[in-house]
Amino acid sequence: MAIESQRIEEVQVKRVVAQVSQTYRFGLYFGLRVDLMLEWDS
């Protein structure tokens, strides 16, 4: 039973890490787009 809950925790951690890296990549991409647009305007 203890091993089972440990496995579930591992899956949850991996899911959170994947979500964070996805959000970070999107934010990085979006930030670059905003920078380019601002430079373009001036």
Provide an overview of this structure.
The protein is an all-alpha fold and 42 residues long. The chain is 95% helix and 0% strand. The protein is built from one helix and no strands. It has one helix spanning 2-41. The radius of gyration is 18 Å and the shape is rod-shaped. The relative contact order is 0.08.
Report low-confidence residues grouped into runs of 5 or more. Answer: none
Average pLDDT works out at 90
The succession of helices and strands, N to C, reads H
The count of strands amounts to 0
Biggest pleated sheet: none
Structural class: mainly alpha
Q: Using only CA atoms, what is the Rg?
A: 18 Å
Anisotropy-based shape: rod-shaped
Helix content: over 70%
Q: Tally the helices.
A: 1
Distance between the termini: 62 Å
Strand content: under 5%
SSE topology:
Layout: H1 2-41
Task: Record keyword descriptors for this entry.
mainly alpha; 1 helix; 42 residues
